[in-house]
Design goal:
The chain is mostly beta strands. It contains three helices and twelve strands.
């Protein structure tokens, strides 16, 4: 009995880390709408921390024909705040007359950043991806204005790809990824990490376009 209980606990633990398919879509059928509640959240790493939102949708109708994959919409959230850059400078050693690269940290201006990558795959077959990259340096007033620290941002995502998956495309996966350094009170290089607060995407797979 103890052995059976241990096996059940092990199976339960494995299943808890799996992302189950949420919904179903057919080739040539209606558009499927994805919001944040359709995604499972996953955090990995310590510094930087990698955040992933993962959604899986079963697909019916891949018989080896050419497919047209369409993923589009908006990813939104709060912009992070960073400070400091790393520069490289070449110097020449007078004695050896050789160049040497020295790295040093420049306490540059604070800036907002909002970046995320959305990837689309199907049954481990890469389909396509698109990225959001936003960066804005703050002036002296803005960098001290607490209302500016958690600035809301959004970006448009478009993935369009025609591809033949030879009948192997059975489960679509949409993944939203971003990363940031953990906030450290003794390290002024990173403040207020960005967050993904809203996802609104539409997904369709067509035979004819």
């Amino acid at each position: 009995m103890k052995g059976m209980m241990g096996l059940l606990i092990l199976i339960s633990s494995v299943l808890s880390f799996q992302v189950m398919a949420h919904g179903q879509i057919a080739v040539g059928g209606m558009q499927y709408t994805l919001t944040k509640k359709d995604f499972v959240h996953k955090t990995t790493g310590k510094n930087p921390v990698k955040q992933e939102l993962i959604a899986k949708i079963n697909l019916n109708g891949d018989h080896g024909q050419r497919l047209y994959f369409n993923l589009a919409g908006i990813v939104a959230g709060k912009a992070g705040l960073k400070q400091g850059t790393v520069s490289k400078v070449k110097v020449i050693n007078v004695d050896t007359v050789k160049e040497k690269i020295i790295k040093y940290t420049v306490p540059g201006k604070k800036y907002h950043f909002f970046d995320a990558t959305v990837t689309l795959s199907c049954s481990n077959i890469a389909i396509g991806e698109d990225s959001i990259q936003y960066k804005k340096y703050l002036n002296g007033y803005e960098s001290k204005n607490t209302n500016k620290i958690n600035e809301n941002r959004d970006g448009k995502i478009v993935v369009y790809k025609k591809q033949v998956t030879k009948g192997k495309c059975k489960q679509l996966e949409v993944k939203v990824t971003h990363q940031y350094n953990k906030v450290n009170a003794t390290n002024s290089k990173e403040f207020h990490p960005m967050s993904i607060d809203n996802v609104n995407l539409t997904l369709s797979v067509l035979e004819k376009y």
